[in-house]
Write a structure and sequence with these properties.
Blueprint (H helix, E strand, L loop, with lengths): L1 H4 L11 E6 L4 E5 L12 H11 L5 E7 L10 H8 L6 E5 L5 E5 H4 L24
Parallel strand pairs: 3-4
Antiparallel strand pairs: 1-2, 1-3, 4-5
Length: about 130
């Protein structure tokens, strides 16, 4: 996956690439971006998701992730939670270096995702209430 080639992984050397597909057929890629302060590292899945959301997307069909390893590359818990914000039925394609892949939904990977009721969220003064999707 081309996105994996763009990874910035000078510490772990573990290069991950992801591509997220919208229901309208557009896709956005991401790669992992490490930081010397490890907790500031951002995974490829979240980079792809955040890139798509920053471009106005919010309706996703699937995401693919690979690290070019023998094992399937599964999203971490933080990425699973971030994806669940946009739908529990998003398909997650997890590939290995042979090109084989497993497919699971976000709900299968994170069956008890944390959720808040968006309709009950307070809106700061001067801001518009977000649209309900």
């Amino acid at each position: 996956m081309e996105a994996r080639d763009r990874a910035y992984a000078p510490y772990s050397k573990f290069r991950v690439g992801a591509a997220i597909l919208t229901r309208d057929g557009r896709y956005y890629t991401g790669c992992n971006i490490e930081n010397a302060s490890y907790s500031l590292t951002c995974c490829a899945e979240r980079v792809a998701l955040f890139k798509a959301v920053s471009c106005g997307e919010s309706d996703f069909e699937a995401i693919a992730v690979t690290a070019g390893t023998e094992e399937y590359c599964t999203p971490c818990g933080a990425c699973r939670q971030a994806l669940s914000e946009f739908g529990s039925e998003i398909k997650v394609f997890m590939a290995n270096k042979q090109g084989d892949y497993l497919v699971r939904t976000v709900a299968e990977l994170l069956p008890s995702a944390f959720k808040l009721d968006k309709a009950d969220q307070a809106v700061p003064p001067g801001n518009k209430k977000p649209s309900q999707n």
